[in-house]
Specification:
The protein has 235 residues and is an alpha/beta fold. It contains six helices and ten strands, in the order βββαβααβαββββαβα.
Length: 235
């Protein structure tokens, strides 16, 4: 707990993965990918319960071997390619609350595809959420060279600005800072999730993270990048 907030950690990991088959249990820095999220959650000072939501027996077995609790098997309709995150999280919350006969205040969401964050990042975000009564606190990273003002699209074979024209001669240091969600940390207010059917809500606060803790695993290159950062960290 933190400031009397009851906190449920949820790890979401379905079996299907088209881009990188069996991605969630593929080795990274000497451990299955999902293990990094489990250990990050177990290392939190504040999380009261940590559960794994999965439909896959092998993922469930790996999860349990690293200390994740698996009180249910995710329903098949929530494990398809088109299944949204919100109902998956709501299902886990409803199951745990019914089982325990109590209601949680905050949800710490862990996605195995974002393995680089630290337990300290999770706890800091929990503190920010609890102290500010936020609907959500999200880990973000500055976009750097991939600034949206430089984005382009092709219309009738010609290059045009994607959003707004890029100012002539604009230097990187003159651009307004832009950020993207890195997937490493999500702290979500339970009532907003359940009553408003909203992941982020109206009051969403930032937690800025460095590049070395922001790699998201979507393809083979991301695995190489993550291995590099883990080696730099000393793992």
């Amino acid at each position: 707990m933190y400031k009397n907030k009851l906190i449920l950690g949820i790890i979401t990991a379905r079996g299907g993965s088209k881009g990188v088959p069996r991605k969630n249990i593929r080795p990274l820095a000497g451990k299955p990918l999902i293990a990094h999220s489990i250990l990050r959650g177990k290392g939190s000072k504040y999380i009261d319960r940590l559960v794994l939501s999965s439909d896959d027996e092998e993922i469930i077995g790996v999860g349990r071997s690293y200390g994740a609790e698996v009180p249910f098997v995710r329903p098949a309709e929530l494990a398809t390619d088109t299944a949204k995150s919100l109902p998956v999280i709501q299902h886990a919350i409803e199951f745990c609350e019914k089982q325990e006969g109590r209601k949680y205040d905050l949800i710490a969401l862990f996605e195995p595809t974002a393995p680089m964050g630290l337990s300290e990042d999770v706890d800091k975000c929990i503190e920010i959420a609890a102290e500010n009564d936020a609907d959500s606190v999200l880990g973000i990273e500055e976009v750097g060279d991939w600034h949206p003002v430089r984005a382009k699209k092709i219309v009738n074979g010609r290059i045009e600005p994607f959003i707004i024209p890029e100012p002539e001669g604009m230097r990187r240091q003159d651009q307004e800072k832009a950020y993207f969600r890195n997937g490493s940390v999500y702290i979500l207010r339970r009532d907003n999730l359940m009553e408003n059917d909203s992941l982020w809500g109206e009051v969403s606060l930032p937690y800025i993270m460095p590049e070395e803790r922001s790699t998201n695993i979507d393809n083979e290159v991301d695995f190489v990048r993550a291995e590099y950062w883990f080696k730099k960290r000393g793992y």
